[in-house]
Write a structure and sequence with these properties.
Structural class: alpha/beta
Radius of gyration: 22 Å
Shape: elongated
CATH topology of the largest domain: Rossmann fold
Largest sheet: 7 strands, mixed
Number of strands: 13
Distance between the termini: 57 Å
CATH class of the largest domain: Alpha Beta
Bound molecules: 6-O-phosphono-beta-D-fructofuranose
Helix content: 25-40%
CATH architecture of the largest domain: 3-Layer(aba) Sandwich
Strand order of the largest sheet: 3-2-1-4-5-12-13
């Protein structure tokens, strides 16, 4: 099959590196005489048939730019469309046929989708309906199976690590317990790696349920040893032994309806009342998703994007570009969405953290 024209979109939560992938795909395509259109705001643009024609000027100077020049959406799901004027939150519509129609109407030979598990799940559904799709894995959470690392993660990790470094000095000055809350959804990768890199004392991750008593004992022990401050890194999705998580809100229309957050404030109250040590919460939030990508993410995104277009030319539809052992390879999209990639409580990263004296706030691990 000869490829003459392709579409590209960025969907789900944004992260640093999206533009670098778009640039690499488009430069590779335009160099080979293939036309590219960029759908606006993820799958929303495919449903509404809103796009921009990409030229070499469009993708010039965007390598280092955060966000996405195409826009994105984590609620535009063509299979359960809720955005007016074509749908409503009360009555979602299946507009996948409209998206397929627009794809054909634009005479596209392929679509490259850049997104996390929600986007990949929608991409697989369209592949099953006959749309030729190649995917690229994105998310700061690093929770996708079938790839060693998603782009965006390294940038978020660096933001979190810098925050821990900065919090250290103020924690020390005021002799406080400082709690830094990271994103990551149901996976503890950002929290664990930044806590290791930044020298956190306690790290709480969703994969290892915590116990308030263990946290309190650990903090009091540090104090009795003359250590007058402590740093806790808490993943937004961390849960206690009763399975309780801090949830800020639910977004019914989203492919991922639960919004996590607030654990840092809960812990801070608990710590002050039980230890009488002053404590403060610092929620990093969307800071972790903004700004320029790190050198590693620019490099990884460029490799992902260049490969994704090569995969289109080779007709590797239904596949995702994947980073394995420092090389870019390809895996079935279906394999990438079969399960979340989580921290292994018995793995070597957890062991290393314990070996340098960190606590997971758990009596079981340690
Ligand atoms: O998946 C990326 C992520 O930033 C998660 O870490 C976080 O839980 C969620 O998205 C936040 O979503 P929103 O941008 O809708 O608040």
């Amino acid at each position: 099959m000869s490829i003459k024209k392709i579409g590209i979109l960025t969907a789900g939560g944004d992260c640093p590196g999206l533009n670098a992938v778009v640039r690499a795909v488009c430069k590779n395509a335009l160099r080979q005489g293939v036309e590219v259109i960029g759908f606006k705001n993820g799958f929303d643009g495919v449903v509404r048939n809103e796009f921009i024609k990409i030229t070499s000027e469009t993708v010039s100077g965007i390598l280092t730019l955060g966000g996405t020049i195409l826009g994105t959406s984590n609620i535009a799901n063509p299979f359960k469309y809720t955005l007016p004027p074509f749908g409503s939150a009360e009555k979602p519509s299946d507009l996948s046929a409209v998206a397929l129609h627009n794809f054909k109407e634009n005479q596209l030979d392929a679509l490259i989708t850049i997104g996390g598990d929600g986007t990949l799940t929608m991409s697989q559904k369209f592949v099953d309906l006959g749309m030729p799709i190649v995917a690229v894995p994105k998310t700061i959470d690093n929770d996708l199976s079938a790839t060693d690392q998603t782009f965006g993660f390294d940038s978020a990790l660096n933001v979190a690590t810098e925050a821990i470094d900065r919090i250290h000095t103020t924690a020390q000055s005021h002799h406080r317990v400082m709690i830094i809350e990271t994103m990551g959804r149901y996976a503890g990768w950002i929290a664990l790696r930044s806590a290791i890199a930044g020298g956190g004392d306690i790290v709480l991750i969703p994969e290892i349920p915590y116990n308030d008593d263990v946290i309190v004992d650990y903090l009091l022990k540090r104090r009795s040893q003359g250590k007058n401050f402590s740093i806790i890194v808490a993943a937004e999705g961390a849960k206690n032994e009763k399975g309780e998580q801090a949830i800020t809100r639910t977004v019914a229309a989203s492919t991922d309806p639960i919004r996590l957050g607030g654990i840092a404030y809960k812990l801070s109250d608990m710590i002050e009342s039980r230890t009488h040590i002053e404590s403060r919460a610092c929620v990093l939030g969307h800071m972790q998703r903004g700004g320029t990508p790190t050198a590693f993410d620019r490099w990884l995104s460029t490799l992902y994007g260049a490969k994704a277009f090569d995969m289109v030319m080779e007709g590797k539809f239904g596949y995702m570009a994947s980073f394995r052992n420092f090389a870019i390879t390809e895996v079935k999209i279906a394999d990438a969405i079969s399960k979340l990639k989580l921290v292994d409580p018995n793995g070597e990263e957890v062991r290393a953290a314990l070996e340098v004296g960190m606590s997971f706030g758990s009596a079981q691990i340690g």
